[in-house]
Amino acid sequence: MFLITHLKKSLQILQQSSSAFTGIFFNVYCYIFTLILCFNSVVQAKQIELGEFRSGTVGKYIEYFQETDQKLTLEQAKIHFAKPNKVKQGNNNSISLGIGVKPVWMKFSVSNSDDVQSPYRLAIETPWLDYIDTWLVNDHKISRHIIGGDGIAFEQRPMPYRFYAFEHQFPIGVTDVYIRIESKGPLAVPIHFSNKEEAIKRDISAAYEYGILYGILFALALYNLVLFIFIKQKEYGLYSLYLFGFALNSLSYTGQLHTIFTYNIGPLFQDWLDIFLMITYSIAGLHFARALLKTQQDAPKLDKFVTKITLIVPLAMLAGLLFQQLIFSMALSFLLNTSFVILFIAMGVCALNANRPFAKIFLFSSVTAAVCITISTLAVAGILIPYNDFTFKAIEIGMTFEAFLLAVILAKQFRMAKMDKLVAESYARTDALTGINNRRGFQEATYSAWHSIARTGRDASIVLIDLDSFKQVNDKFGHDAGDTILRTVATCIATTIRKADITARWGGEEFIIFLPETPQDQAAVQAERVRVAIEKLQTYINSTPLTVTASFGVAGSEHNRFNNTELSVNAFEQMVKAADEALYLAKNNGKNRIIISQADGQLTQHLPKTH
Predict the structure, then answer these.
(1) Please, what CATH class does the domain formed by 439-607 belong to?
(2) Which residues form a coiled coil (predicted)?
(3) In the chain, what's the furthest Cα-to-Cα distance?
């Protein structure tokens, strides 16, 4: 303005001069002055030319100012905009002014010199703004006044849309667009302006993007909820709540939830819902991290701080709701949400120092999410990072990536727990000394085979084995020597029997063999093979060779009949008992021999001992 005033005064002086040189200089000066005026008008009054502008944000085309004491009318706002030193020029894609600030007036101009016929959509892509008024002014006359915002009932808004938006076909010439926004929430104002065709394409693209995002989040949340219901590990329940909370919060603050739930509860309903959903996922996420990383054990002070902040902040926010102090509660929610990111990283570092499993993956996911949240925050605030679709959605991208990595951690933890369970079950079925089945393992291993044989009318047999004079070995050489003998004999039995046969340590120095698809007479032959193998064993105790023998009791079916009755599912215990009785006779009839149980259950037959 100073430059223009100076030029005007100079022109007046030159006009008073009559010399030829001065006349020539005057003409040149006028030409330069005209160029400067044109340049100045371009800087001061930047317009959107519809013939060249199809889609984009209009932050750089906007002039704006904030009300001070009283609400201004449109005419008063026009007067204010006419004072260049009273307005600010937008220099980013989004205008961001903070939380709980005074209402803002914005202005930009749209030129339709090419007579573009396509309607254009103006959308303010912050769904929580309470009250928005837009005036379209042509030739100093108001052609349209559009009222909307979150404080207006959904059915009264200019479009059934998640944002404040309207469509308009601009006439030839220049249309001045005046916007007034009043809101208690964060006053971030990204204004997107595009022709209708581009706006529809953008909506379709956003629908696919959000569909994929929410599909992933809800699928992971439901899967982990099912795991929590069945295995009762709180990590899975908290992770599920964390994902559900974030997905619902995203649906709310992007306005999509409020296109489904349109009941008019009040102008501040969305603001309250947003902040409480925000702390829901933050609290669930922090407690999930505590449980997953065992923070209580590795960093008790940090754990106590996390517990306190997740209790105090919600209670204080509820007090704010009770007394209708939205700004107070909103500040607390942003405090907790910011702390959430920092505490996630802190707990990850503590877990890494404690060498917790998956700490590196957790820390990497937390840092990635923090970076993405920072990008979105700075973009909306208009600081350092330009506002666009990617930077605005960076928070969703980061949180989805984090959710995926956390799901990987839980999947690996589940697999480790499953492997630990399998190992524990294996130990529960295995004799610790000999490494073969114990009694429980034997019963589980033979259950399905026995039931199949009994149902289909085939044969099966049982062989019981007892080491001879084993007590004398323990008394003479000690229990360590006895344990060595037991391990050697167990290995001998396991390597001598057939592949389909099942063996176990039955107790003490007794062993058992189940022979499927084997009648009693063939079982006796197999028992003899094992008896001979044991007899030939040599175990060295303190360089002294030691041999042992064993007595055998055999019981089985012939032609699917046992004890003169058809083999049944319930006959297993009877067969074991018969083999035990035969073993008793073998021990009392010279040992190192095989006794076969007879069909009548009374008589027994000696299988001659081989030498």
Answers:
(1) alpha beta
(2) none
(3) 152
Reported confidence tier of residue 607, pLDDT bands at 50, 70, 90 = low
User: Please, what is the average pLDDT of the chain?
Assistant: 87
Q: What was the pLDDT predicted at 1?
A: 40
**Tokens at residue 158, please?**
């200019």
Q: Tell me: the pLDDT tens digits for 116-158?
A: 999 999 999 999 899 999 999 999 999 999 999 999 989 999 9
**Class of the domain covering 48-200:** mainly beta
- 296-306 residue pLDDT tens: 999 999 999 99
Q: Could you please report the per-residue DSSP string of 353-417?
A: HTT-TTHHHHHHHHHHHHHHHHHHHHHHHTSSS--SHHHHHHHHHHHHHHHHHHHHHHHHHHHHH
Query: Measured between alpha carbons, how far is 63 from 80 in angstroms, rounded to an integer?
Result: 11
**Is 592 in contact with 609 (CB distance < 8 Å)?**
yes
* Cα(164)–Cα(262) distance, integer angstroms: 14
Q: Collect all residues with Cβ–Cβ distance below 8 Å to 372 and sequence separation of at least 6.
A: 394, 395, 397, 398, 399, 401
Would you state the structure tokens that stand for residue 594, as one six-digit string? 């095989």
Q: Which residue has the tokens 């205008």?
A: 95
Which position has the token pair 């961001």? 96
pLDDT digits 0-9 by tens, 362-410:
999 989 988 888 888 777 666 677 777 788 788 888 888 988 898 888 8
Centre a 10 Å sphere on the Cβ of residue 248 and count the other Cβ atoms it contains.
18
Contact 555, 575 (CB under 8 A): yes
The helix or strand, by DSSP H or E, that contains position 596, with its residue range, turns out to be: strand 594-597
Q: Is 557 in a helix, a strand, or coil?
A: coil
Q: Could you tell me if residue 559 is left (phi over 0), alpha (psi between -120 and 50 degrees) or otherwise beta?
A: left
| Rounded Cα distance, 159 and 145, in Å | 14
153 closest CA partner among 77, 265, 58: 265
pTM metric for this prediction: 0.68
Q: Please name the residues in contact with 292: beta carbons below 8 A apart, sequence gap of 6 or more.
A: 235, 239, 358, 362, 409, 410, 413
CA distance 237 to 282: 14
User: What 3-state class would DSSP assign to 17?
Assistant: coil
Task: Tell me how far CA of residue 282 lies from CA of 223, 231, 244, 290, 336, in angstroms.
Answer: 20, 24, 11, 12, 7
- Per-residue pLDDT tens digits for 329-369: 999 998 898 888 899 999 999 999 999 888 999 999 989 98
pLDDT beyond 70 at 275: yes
Span 236-258, average pLDDT: 91
Range with the poorest average pLDDT among 165-179, 238-252, 381-395: 381-395
Pair of tokens at residue 532: 């001979």
**How many CA atoms lie less than 13 Å away from 496 in the CB half-sphere?**
20
Residues facing residue 594 across a β-bridge: 552, 607
Residue in the structure block whose two tokens are 């010279």: 590
Contact indicator for 139, 145 with CB cutoff of 8 Å: no
d(CA 151, CA 116): 34
Cβ(593)–Cβ(551) below 8 Å:
yes
Would you say 326 and 318 are in contact if contact means Cβ atoms under 8 Å apart? no
User: What single letter denotes the amino acid at residue 209?
Assistant: E
Which residues contact residue 502 at a Cβ distance below 8 angstroms, ignoring those fewer than 6 apart? 437, 442, 445, 446, 449, 513, 514, 516
**More reliable by pLDDT, 141 or 426:** 141
Q: How far is CA 533 from the centre of its chain?
A: 59
